[in-house]
Design brief:
By secondary structure, the protein is α+β, with helices and mostly antiparallel strands. The protein has one domain: Trna Endonuclease, Chain: A, domain 1 (3-Layer(aba) Sandwich). The protein contains 5 helices and 6 strands, in the order ααβββαβαββα. The chain is globular, with a radius of gyration of 15 Å. The N and C termini lie far apart (41 Å). 19% of the residues are buried.
Length: 139
């Protein structure tokens, strides 16, 4: 699907695809950006309210049978994709760095699957990003 950028993050992603922004630069900026992660709906949930502290993210298998975490640049980008996954109409908006800390390394991530402008991160890349994160500050 063609993607007309709707936010600054998508504009940067489009620049990577156009060759005017280095992928490494985009990834460093991405760490502080919010992404949308589809999560499984809870039974008997209150509309729009996640009771569980253990949200179950949408993880798909790629053509090689590898499990891949799916995230999007906005909730609107997720809609056409999650239609194929009943039970995943909910989601979390969260910083990419927060997400990386929670999953640790070893899990590939697909950003905007199904759209022309997206990016895939293999497990090694994710592990390298996690290793580069500054220590979390306690509140």
């Amino acid at each position: 699907m063609n993607l007309v950028p709707h936010n600054a993050l998508e504009e940067q992603l489009a620049a990577v695809h156009a060759g005017t922004l280095a992928p490494e630069t985009f990834v460093l900026r991405l760490l502080d950006e919010q992404l949308f992660m589809p999560v499984r709906d809870e039974k008997d949930a209150i509309q729009g309210f996640q009771r569980s502290t253990q949200a179950e993210p949408l993880i798909i298998e790629d053509e090689d049978g590898e499990r891949v975490l799916v995230v999007f640049t906005s909730p609107d980008r997720a809609k056409p994709f999650v239609e194929h996954f009943p039970g995943f109409s909910g989601g979390l908006l969260t910083e990419f760095s927060w997400l990386l800390r929670r999953i640790g390394g070893g899990v590939p991530i697909a950003l905007n699957p199904g759209w022309d402008i997206g990016m895939d991160f293999d497990a090694d890349t994710i592990a390298q990003l996690v290793a580069q994160l500054p220590p979390e500050h306690s509140a």
